[in-house]
Amino acid sequence: MNAVNKNELIGRKASAYAPASTGNVSVGFDLLGAALVRIDQQPLGDTVHVEFSQQDEMINSGEFAHVCPTDKMQNLAWIAYVLFRSKLSNSDEYPAVKMELVKSLPVGSGLGSSACSVVASLTALNRLFELPYTDQALLTLMGEVEAGASGDLHYDNVAPSYFGGLQLMSPHESAPVINLPNPDSWYWVVAFPGFSLPTKEAREVLPKQVDKSVAIYNAQYLSAFVAYLYQGEQTLAAKTIKDVIAEPYRADLIAGFKSSKQHLLEQGALAVGISGAGPTLFALTSDLAQAEKYKNYLEQNYIQQEENQANKGFVHICQCAIQGAKDIELSN
Ligand SMILES: Nc1ncnc2c1ncn2[C@@H]1O[C@H](COP(=O)(O)OP(=O)(O)O)[C@@H](O)[C@H]1O
Ligand SMILES: N[C@@H](CCOP(=O)(O)O)C(=O)O
């Protein structure tokens, strides 16, 4: 491409919205994740707008812009862009990029906030550059950037945020994710208490090895969960959600988690667990009226009410989002 054509690209725009996700879903540590959509259809995720421009530029906007690093080289959305570009064989043929990250999720929340920025950024860029990367290549880039933030490679946030649905990571590189049947009868009540728990920190408390009995329980719960979903037994599947790997070590890091979990299970919740690495709690029910009750309870009892918090807590009723960033089209 010659210089004139390069200039002609200036002003071309693309955008992407990446939904929040809940990693692990308790029963599949680092292997299972669900994309989330609020039932009131309000956004719960990040949006990225990109545009070919004369010079590189990055701006943060949105409700949680204040929690984003101001130095663009520290911002995962921009780090993703640098990696995206570094692996393009014809990178020199394209102009600079102006990026706006509309940050709608708190950081260190357990809702895949870092993944949202990475997925929205790479999806928007792939559109802007006219799809140089396949889904699989893009997923690999997403995993690489996410690993830089959390300390370990795990796809359980980026995969659902990009593809939507309830995604199980496959051991086969050629088909890295399995889209499980969508548990459409479930309402996910997600409560972010208003304080952050960095994923890196929540991974450091986990033991490096697990007992044989724990490995067997984990295999039993996860395999039964998947089998029930394929049998259409969504309630049984939800009741099979149990975390024997991370929750025993992380629960004490999250003020109010144990008491809220006990209360919600007594009220009939199908499952209650830590969303991702926490501190967000999720509770499942197939009854919307119950979901509203859990929401009220969590607003009163799980959300931290202190003044001067950097983040405000929130509780939302969600469902598993069918669409991820890949299929959500935004008008610029
Ligand atoms: N755009 C971004 N969105 C979220 N986190 C970001 C972003 N850019 C840089 N970061 C940094 O990456 C780290 C993400 O923390 P992490 O606990 O993994 O978040 P989460 O669990 O919410 O995904 C934080 O140190 C945060 O400051
Ligand atoms: N599998 C990861 C999930 C981290 O999710 P996040 O939303 O807290 O970043 C883990 O449990 O560490």
Structure notes:
The protein is built from eleven helices and twelve strands. With 332 residues, it is α+β, with helices and mostly antiparallel strands. It folds into two domains: 3-180 and 323-327, Ribosomal Protein S5, domain 2; 187-316, GHMP kinase, C-terminal domain (Alpha-Beta Plaits), CATH 3.30.70. It is globular, with a radius of gyration of 20 Å. The protein starts with a helix and ends in a 12-residue tail after the last strand. Residues 23-24, 30, 110-112, 114, 150, 154, 156-157, 199, 202-203, 246, 276-277 line the site of ligand LJ64HWYM. Adenosine-5'-diphosphate is lined by residues 68-69, 74-77, 101, 107-110, 112-115, 117, 149-150, 198-199, 276-277. Residues 247-303 form the GHMP kinase C-terminal domain. Pathway: Amino-acid biosynthesis; L-threonine biosynthesis; L-threonine from L-aspartate: step 4/5. ATP binds at residues 106-116. InterPro entries: GHMP_kinase_C_dom, GHMP_kinase_C_sf, GHMP_kinase_N_dom, GHMP_knse_ATP-bd_CS, Homoserine_kinase, Ribosomal_Su5_D2-typ_SF, Ribsml_uS5_D2-typ_fold_subgr.
